[in-house]
Amino acid sequence: MPVGLGVDIVEIERMRKILARTPSFARKVFTEDEQAYCNSKANPAQHYAARFAAKEAVGKALGVGIMADGLRVQDVEVVRDFRGHPAVKLHGRAVEIARERGVVDIPLSLSFTQEVAVANAVAITRDSQAEREKRRDVKAELAGQFKELRGMLDDLSVSTAKAATEATASSPAPKPPALDEEAELPPVDEADKDAQ
């Protein structure tokens, strides 16, 4: 089962004001890579807000929250995966908490509008992954059996059609009656004569 689900929302304008009023905030809360990423964007506050929401969401998914149980804000880092999507990288106490709870993955989703940034994180455990793999194996097995049965039905259908075709081809076709000069024609009805 998942350990938990974490969701957090941050007002972008509020983040913009905090960054302007307290320049050290970014250094205390975000890793150097996070700062470099956010500062490279046209609207840095939007990206800082999304990453702050992500840190909070991950803490909630782990069941502790940021700045609780020894979890520091920089222990949760938002990075980019090989596809360029946001991903979670844990450090320090966050790694320990994840291990204690059997967390093996934390999928992360970030989104923002002009006003707010939102993050959603799910802590996935070994047990939930094993259960998912088990369901996947059952589905694959059923799909394989269905494919095999479908093939058998197709073969049976082809065999039946072939046998019917062969049976028709091997039996002689009935010959139409031959008309010769001596064949007797049915009598013509008087009404038919008038029609001619």
TrEMBL record:
It is an enzyme of class 2 (transferase). Its EC number is 2.7.8.7. It is found in: Cytoplasm. The keyword Cytoplasm applies. Mg(2+) binds at residues 8, 56. It comes from the Bacteria. Residues 160-172 have a biased composition (Low complexity). One of its GO terms (biological process) is fatty acid biosynthetic process. Its main location: cytoplasm. Residues 4-100 form the 4'-phosphopantetheinyl transferase domain. It catalyses: apo-[ACP] + CoA = holo-[ACP] + adenosine 3',5'-bisphosphate + H(+). Residues 179-196 have a biased composition (Acidic residues). Keywords: Cytoplasm, Fatty acid biosynthesis, Fatty acid metabolism, Lipid biosynthesis, Lipid metabolism, Magnesium, Metal-binding, Transferase. GO terms for cellular component: cytoplasm. Pfam families: ACPS (PF01648). Residues 160-196 are annotated as: Disordered. Transfers the 4'-phosphopantetheine moiety from coenzyme A to a Ser of acyl-carrier-protein. Belongs to the P-Pant transferase superfamily. AcpS family. This is Holo-[acyl-carrier-protein] synthase.
